[in-house]
Structures are given as structure tokens and as C-alpha cells.
Design brief:
- The protein has 16 helices and no strands.
- By secondary structure, the chain is an all-alpha fold.
- Among the domains are: 115 residues, no CATH class; 89 residues, Tetratricopeptide repeat domain (Serine Threonine Protein Phosphatase 5, Tetratricopeptide repeat, Alpha Horseshoe).
Length: 324
């Protein structure tokens, strides 16, 4: 039978069968296609270029667009690897969509609207504000646990589910940021962490996580900026100073790195890990006195450290103490 002669309902069902064949969530496809179709129509009708759109003035649409972007990215990963077989089905689907015209688009939009309405009704009517908060916390905790067990895609799905119910859930955005860092999907990580910061500009953890992304990308200047902001928001967290010191070390600014390591040790004087980092930096800079003081503190904090004798030998080999 010629594709163009298939009735509109038959085309819609054929599209559904292809989606099921590839084990892809049909609803996810329809939501994305509807979003893209509607957005394209609006842009073509009202704007001469994408740069003319001011999404800052339409916050609800901006948040919705970001959720759809996350869904679209999940779909793209599902489709990856199907090769030529998928391309044939993909072309067939869109060929049918073109011939079905406005009727098919209308059905897709109606399906998306019905789904969102049902979700909102179930969420708003059945649960009180307190119950919603409890449920959201439980969902975030479930996602955190999945992530800790390295079930990253399942955790991603759960975080996105949280955001579908609460688009301003900062914990979910930060959780996604960590997952995308583990998966080395740095563009996605930056996007969700920046959204977390927009929701709370005083979130020192989000700045620090964003700095980690920039560090992994080799953007040390931006990482420095982000970490300075994280320290400005929370100067008493030793980990921020350690991270900033590592960025300075990567930039070859060891004296600045040393200052940050010292600050971290002041905040957590019995932390063996931080003492080790400071001791290594002091030895690299031939600061004999500082190295000895740090080693003495390390002996108390971690007397079983197997490198204590090695450290003492290195300190004794420094002939001239560099100025502090």
C-alpha cells in the first residue's frame, strides 16, 4: 500500500508500532514532537529570529522548555545506536506526519495537554502541601540512593520526575548535575547547575559543583570564579578552599594554592587528607618549617600513616627553608 493513501488514524497507529519496536516511550516522543511543532509555529509567526525571544519574561515557559530539553536528551540516548534501521523508520514516521497534516499535530498536542492536566490534578488534589513536600523529599532521596549505587540513568529519571512535579526543586537540579558529571555529560551538568544557582544565588554547593565541571573541561579561570563565589557564600567549609587550591595548582600558582590549603587546615585541623595535601604543597615549595609543623599535626591526626617516615626524610633533605 502506498504511504500517502494510509488513513490518518492508520498512520498514527503505524507510528506507534514503530516506537514500540524500538522500545521507546511513545508518550515521550509525542511530547517532544508536540513541543517542537508548537514552538516552531510560534517562532515563525511572531518572531523574525530566535534571538528576539525573551524567555526571561516568560519564566513558566522557560522552565517547561528546560524539562522538555531533558526529556529530549533522554530520547536521543535511547535512539542512539539503532543505525540505518532506525533511520528508515524515522523517515517513514515523518513522511506520514507530513501527509497527516494538522490532524495529527492536533492529536499530539491534545495528548500532551491531557497528560499534563492529569498529572497536575493528581498532584494538586490528592495531596496537601505538607504531603507534597514529604513525597518530594522521599523521591529525591530515592534518586540519591540510585546515584550512590551508580544507577545513574534510573536516578536521572527519578530527578526529572521530581522536576515535573516541582520545577523549582533545587535538590533535583543539583542531583542531576552530579549525575551528568559522573557520566561526563558536562554540557548537561552546566545547564542544570546554572538553573539551581538561578533559583538560589547563595547556594555555595552549586557553585562548587559548577566549578568541578569547569575544572574537568580545563576552564580553570571560570572554575576559580565559581569557587571564589562558593567561598564568599560559605567561607567556613574547608572543601571549598581545597578545591580552589587545586585549581590554583593546575594554573601553576602554587603560592596561592598553599594559602588555600592552609585555610582548609585551619578550619579542619585534624583532617588527615587536608594535612597530606598541605604537606605535599609545602614540600614542593621547599617550606621546611611549614612542612615539619604539618607533619607533626599529621602524626597526631593519623599516626598509622605509612608515609610519615618518607615525609620526614624529605623534610630533612631541604637545606634552606623557603620564606613563608
Amino acid at each position: 500500500m502506498v504511504v500517502g493513501s494510509i488513513p490518518a488514524r492508520g498512520k498514527f497507529l503505524h507510528m506507534q508500532n514503530i516506537a514500540i519496536f524500538f522500545n521507546i516511550d511513545l508518550l515521550l516522543i509525542l511530547i517532544i514532537l508536540a513541543s517542537g511543532t508548537v514552538a516552531a509555529a510560534m517562532i515563525a509567526r511572531k518572531f523574525s529570529s530566535i534571538s528576539a525571544i525573551d524567555l526571561e519574561k516568560i519564566q513558566i515557559e522557560k522552565e517547561r522548555a528546560q524539562r522538555h530539553h531533558l526529556l529530549e536528551d533522554r530520547l536521543r540516548r535511547k535512539l542512539r545506536g539503532h543505525g540505518k534501521v532506525f533511520l528508515v523508520g524515522f523517515n517513514l514516521v515523518f513522511g506520514q506526519m507530513r501527509s497527516a497534516g494538522k490532524l495529527l499535530v492536533q492529536k499530539i498536542v491534545e495528548l500532551e495537554n491531557r497528560y499534563e492536566e492529569q498529572l497536575k490534578k493528581a498532584w494538586k488534589i490528592k495531596l496537601s502541601t505538607e504531603e507534597k513536600a514529604v513525597k518530594l523529599r522521599a523521591m529525591v532521596n530515592q534518586a540519591d540512593e540510585l546515584a550512590s549505587n551508580e544507577q545513574y540513568r534510573e536516578a536521572e529519571k527519578k530527578y526529572i520526575e521530581v522536576l515535573s512535579l516541582d520545577p523549582k526543586n533545587i535538590a533535583a537540579y543539583k542531583g542531576l548535575g552530579k549525575i551528568y558529571m559522573f557520566l561526563k555529560e558536562y554540557d548537561n551538568a552546566k545547564e542544570v547547575l546554572k538553573q539551581a544557582i538561578k533559583l538560589n544565588k547563595k547556594d555555595d554547593e552549586a557553585y562548587a559543583e559548577l566549578a568541578t565541571v569547569e575544572t574537568n573541561l580545563g576552564n580553570f579561570d571560570q572554575a576559580e570564579t565559581d569557587l571564589l563565589e562558593s567561598i564568599a557564600q560559605n567561607p567556613d567549609l574547608a572543601a571549598h578552599h581545597i578545591d580552589l587550591g587545586k585549581v590554583y595548582a593546575a594554573k601553576g600558582e602554587m603560592e596561592k594554592a598553599l594559602v588555600q590549603y592552609q585555610e582548609a587546615v585551619k578550619l579542619e585541623s585534624a583532617n588527615p587528607k587536608n594535612l597530606n595535601i598541605l604537606l605535599d604543597a609545602a614540600l614542593d615549595l621547599n617550606k621546611k618549617t611549614l612542612a615539619q609543623q604539618t607533619l607533626d599535626a599529621l602524626k597526631i591526626a593519623n599516626p598509622e600513616n605509612q608515609k610519615i617516615e618518607e615525609y620526614q626524610t624529605k623534610i630533612n633533605e631541604i637545606k634552606e627553608d623557603a620564606p613563608l
